[in-house]
Amino acid sequence: xxxxMTAVACAAALVLAAGPVRAQAASGEPVWVAAWTxxxxxxxxxxxxxxxxxxxxxxxxxxxxxxxSATALRFRVTNELGVAPLHLDDLSARLTNGQGAVxxxxxxxxxxxxxPVGAAWISDPVALTVPAFGDISxxxxxxxxxxxxxxxxxxxxxxxxxxxxxxxRVVRRQNVISAVYAQRDSAPTVVVALGDSxxxxxxxxxxxxxxWTSLLARRxxxxxxxxIVVLNQGISGNRLMDHGRSHSALARLDRDVxxxxxxxxVILLEGINxxxxxxxPARPGRHPADMILGYSQVVSRLHDRNIRxxxxxxxxxxxxxxxxxxxxxxxxxLNRFIREDGVFDGVIDFDAAVRDPAKPxxxxxxxxxDDRLHPSDEGYxxxxxxxxxxxxxCRPA
Length: 397
Fold this sequence. Notes:
Elements: H1 2-16, E1 31-37, E2 58-65, E3 73-78, E4 86-95, E5 103-104, E6 112-115, E7 120-122, E8 135-142, E9 152-159, E10 171-174, E11 177-184, E12 189-195, H2 197-200, H3 212-223, E13 228-234, H4 249-258, E14 265-269, H5 272-275, H6 288-303, E15 308-312, H7 325-340, E16 346-348, H8 350-354, E17 355-356, E18 359-363, H9 377-385
Parallel strand pairs: 12-13, 12-14, 14-15, 15-16
Antiparallel strand pairs: 1-11, 2-8, 2-9, 3-7, 3-11, 4-5, 4-6, 4-8, 9-10, 17-18
């Protein structure tokens, strides 16, 4: 297997040696690129009595930080994993800072739409000029009971129709927006982070943009202004091989990566949920050979589209509720594979960034949450700082 995977890597290197190849817009013609994303995910059914998952006769506002500047926007609303038609009306967008007008969002000129099951619709262009890392708000009225099917994101909610003020409480809830596209004068380099809750940033301070992907985007902007966009396609509980709370990374690759325009790189950080036991320590999760085959399949499919793949090592989890020695041995084996086998186009050693040097099976003090599985804000900072920007063609001038 090792020889086969090395051959795959060598063949891909010949294709990718000159960097990602893609169609460019004609000279002077603007391009559309994804500036913010959230992966489609089945209804988690984890609402509480005071905050049910469904929206019903409510207006929901979602604030999103754009990964690039834009001269206009389009919104991608998804019902790809819904179980009933998605009824929406009175959509509107504005800059979150309150400057500028509220602009209606339409689909083919319509302000009220019903999106069929299995479909995603993209709005008409919206005349909003947004700076890099500018915050925008999209408000949607849900006239009837709706089960959203996109990963959880910070939202604000009011009853009925109307404006959703800044004073409305921020909660983490599933919604229906899966992407925002930005119009630009030129195409940037696009980096997609594909992973689980550690990539999603589920344990970062809510609505503070402290997950590693956001911090990495800031590093890129400081070093290579306007040239690189980072998109977060992490889902809590996600696995590489098997369905769990969401479709596996292998199953959602087309929808969450290949369907996006202009993707150049993927950072893959998947596997910790595959290898841990599922409530029974005597029955550990996936073994290394299965996982290595899964990684190789992801790399091969992305290489077919001239997308480079950076492998992220799996972070420690000793002390977490599903830790046991066999799974830890699998983690160590996978990290050796990621670092040494050459299947990936580059390696990001997240494990080395956060592990305790004296006890490397666990996080160093202050870098994880109490569950000993998920990073704290400090852990996310160290993960972002560990990434070599030059691997993505970003070097100081």
